[in-house]
Amino acid sequence: MRSLNFKNKWVLVTGASSGLGQEMALQLASKEGANLIITARRADRLEQLRAELVKNAGVQVKIIVADISTNADVDRIIKESTEGQELYAAILNAGITYFGEHKKITDADFDRLIQTNVTGVVRMATQLVKYFEENGREGGVMTVTSMATLYPVPYQALYSGSKAFITNFMLALSQELTNKDLSLTVFAPSGIETEMTQDEKFGGLKKWLMPVSQAALEGIQSLKFRKLFYIPGALNRNGSRFMKLLPRRFILSTMAKTYRKSLGLPH
Ligand SMILES: NC(=O)c1ccc[n+]([C@@H]2O[C@H](COP(=O)([O-])OP(=O)(O)OC[C@H]3O[C@@H](n4cnc5c(N)ncnc54)[C@H](OP(=O)(O)O)[C@@H]3O)[C@@H](O)[C@H]2O)c1
């Protein structure tokens, strides 16, 4: 399968109003010459990004203001992304976390996380795969999960579970494709410097964060070169290999200790 070439092709990026999604949109336009469909809830941020992309990269940009925690908005994103232009690739990046003791999560936060990270992403991926399977054209769909997929993070238990769900779903689905020119990619970063990790609660953990520009670059490359599962950062990839040699209980309790400290909980 040849690598993807985004030049003058339409690429959908969810969660493009900040962080990794915004940076991937910027790099897709400036380095790859892609036309973009950018979506998120904050319209002002998307307008700002569109103006920057059009001015600096000279690409075409379409905005869809939508909340992926609702089925109606997910369906609208897919409809508007696949009608009026030919969609070439999609990066399902939007996501949220809950950082703290799981017993303290509210019902509203619980529902919001599952609907955003799981239901919304699975619904979108399902419709996108159907689109490419039916038209038989070249393309790629990438979901942004997390290294928490492999090494669940205590005090982000629901988040870890949601990302593992998407990883397993995508890996399994990748083997059902009949369109040989379509690839599915799971991009699984460790911590990144974005709004998600701005919270004071991340305190001492902030020194481990990867610059968002590097994460975005590696994300685009993994989609472009049709990686099935990719962890950005050599340190993270090597660390992941090493961690496979350690007992799971030891890894989990060490992480729990670090996170308890960061959250100011007794340790
Ligand atoms: N930062 C990290 O350490 C890290 C590590 C591993 C994986 N990740 C993953 O990377 C992805 C991007 O996160 P980030 O770090 O860039 O965080 P971020 O800066 O908080 O960006 C999250 C994006 O998702 C959008 N979003 C959230 N809820 C949404 C909803 N209901 N509907 C539509 N859009 C929604 C936000 O836009 P609006 O608020 O405007 O809707 C925003 O554009 C996430 O999937 C995250 O889990 C992050």
TrEMBL record:
TM helices/strands, residue ranges: none
Keywords of the record: Oxidoreductase
SUPFAM superfamilies according to UniProt: NAD(P)-binding Rossmann-fold domains
Keyword check for Oxidoreductase: yes
Keyword Oxidoreductase: yes
InterPro entries: NAD(P)-bd_dom_sf, Sc_DH/Rdtase_CS, SDR_fam
Signal sequence range: none
Record-linked CDD domains: SDR_c (cd05233)
Pfam family, one: adh_short
Superkingdom of source: Bacteria
Family that this chain belongs to: Belongs to the short-chain dehydrogenases/reductases (SDR) family.
Protein name: SDR family NAD(P)-dependent oxidoreductase
